[in-house]
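$ ./design --mode recover --in tokens.txt
reading tokens...
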């Protein structure tokens, strides 16, 4: 462990430099061309087998150990968000309207440096390591399922999969983990309401889709409040309402966009059915019509119990027992779930918050930033998980 930690510490400046470079040059889902090229070249310099262009911009590096054995997968996501960065930092995004507001820049940097360190240990590795740099985690359908469809879990066949996500809801260095359900299923829906346009001064000659949309938003909240078992977590959020072009015209159309988060697919199906029924009935009551589109998104992440215990043991050696906690179930969605539906594995939070430094803004905030002291910890977690996982196969 001491030798690995020394290697990690010696590369602290490098992982920070990589992270800041990615942060300055964020790229949206399936457009991570610059990022992917840097990843590809870095992995080649480490002497790994490299496959690029997977799921458009995904990259995979393969490290084959000296002896045959099982294969593990380590994953990082690369995409940024359509957010204009507001922070005044030297490495602020130079791409207008695009920002790394969720930590994927750090995920990519940490896994790259872990790959470099692990390449130095090739002679002592029994088995194989796949370093998966995935496009489009933020935009459903994400890159994970596409990479799997294009064969990332085979040749060689992956036996276990591991991933981490920085978390600004936890103090720097805290490892938050739990067995079983870890994140929610993340679905999205739209409701297009059709009315009859006209002059805003003569509403009786029109059918107002804005009024219908307003009643629909309120009515949909009753699904979770009154039709879902209170012991079953569920969230229904309408995040966007759009309609009209000016102040004195009743428009023809209005559109609602929203998300549903559940821990049980059966609950999601009940909600999706009722969104359709209620939206159509509300529209009909006000002489309009409604068309509904519902997309079932990322399934819940389910962590394997034995793999959770294994990662907890690794974390105990790195950050200490006092910095290990049981993670609350997140109602956020994550497409790491597709890898963990294929093979046993685990996904966990690594705390990146530092309130004293003012680094405690939430994910997807225009002011989001992390305590970079977490970067070596993340690198060491990747390295130790890989070495320990393959040594016990």
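writing sequence...
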């Amino acid at each position: 462990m001491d030798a690995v930690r020394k290697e990690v510490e010696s590369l602290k400046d490098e992982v920070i430099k990589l992270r800041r470079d990615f942060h300055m040059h964020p790229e949206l889902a399936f457009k991570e061309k610059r990022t992917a090229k840097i990843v590809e070249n870095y992995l080649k310099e480490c002497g790994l087998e490299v496959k690029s262009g997977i799921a458009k911009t995904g990259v995979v590096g393969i490290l084959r150990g000296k002896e045959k054995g099982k294969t593990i997968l380590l994953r990082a996501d690369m995409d940024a968000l359509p957010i204009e960065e507001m922070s005044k930092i030297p490495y602020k995004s130079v791409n207008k309207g695009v920002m790394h507001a969720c930590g994927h820049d750090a995920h990519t940097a940490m896994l790259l440096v872990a790959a470099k360190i692990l390449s130095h240990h090739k002679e002592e590795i029994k088995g194989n390591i796949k370093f998966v740099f995935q496009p489009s985690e933020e935009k459903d359908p994400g890159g994970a399922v596409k990479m799997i469809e294009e064969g990332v879990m085979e040749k060689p066949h992956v036996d276990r999969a591991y991933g981490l996500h920085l978390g600004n809801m936890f103090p720097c260095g805290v490892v938050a983990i739990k067995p079983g359900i870890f994140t929610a299923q993340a679905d999205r829906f739209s409701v297009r309401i059709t009315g009859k346009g006209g002059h805003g001064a003569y509403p009786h000659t029109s059918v107002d889709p804005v009024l219908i949309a307003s009643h629909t938003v309120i009515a949909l909240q009753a699904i979770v409040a009154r039709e879902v078992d209170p012991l079953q977590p569920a969230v229904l959020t309408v995040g966007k309402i759009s309609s009209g072009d000016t102040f004195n015209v009743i428009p023809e159309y209005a559109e609602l966009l929203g998300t549903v988060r559940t821990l049980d697919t059966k609950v999601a199906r009940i909600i999706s059915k009722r969104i359709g029924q209620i939206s159509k009935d509300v529209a009909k009551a006000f002489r309009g019509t409604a068309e509904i589109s519902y997309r079932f998104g990322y399934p819940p992440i389910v962590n394997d119990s034995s793999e959770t215990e294994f990662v907890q043991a690794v974390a105990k050696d790195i950050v200490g027992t006092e910095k290990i906690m049981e993670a609350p179930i997140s109602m956020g969605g994550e497409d790491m779930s597709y890898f963990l539906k294929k093979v046993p594995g685990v996904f966990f939070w690594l705390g990146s918050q530092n309130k004293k430094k003012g680094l405690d803004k939430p994910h997807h905030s225009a002011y989001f930033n992390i305590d970079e002291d977490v970067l070596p910890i993340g690198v060491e977690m990747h390295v130790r998980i890989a070495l320990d996982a393959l040594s016990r196969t």
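exit 0
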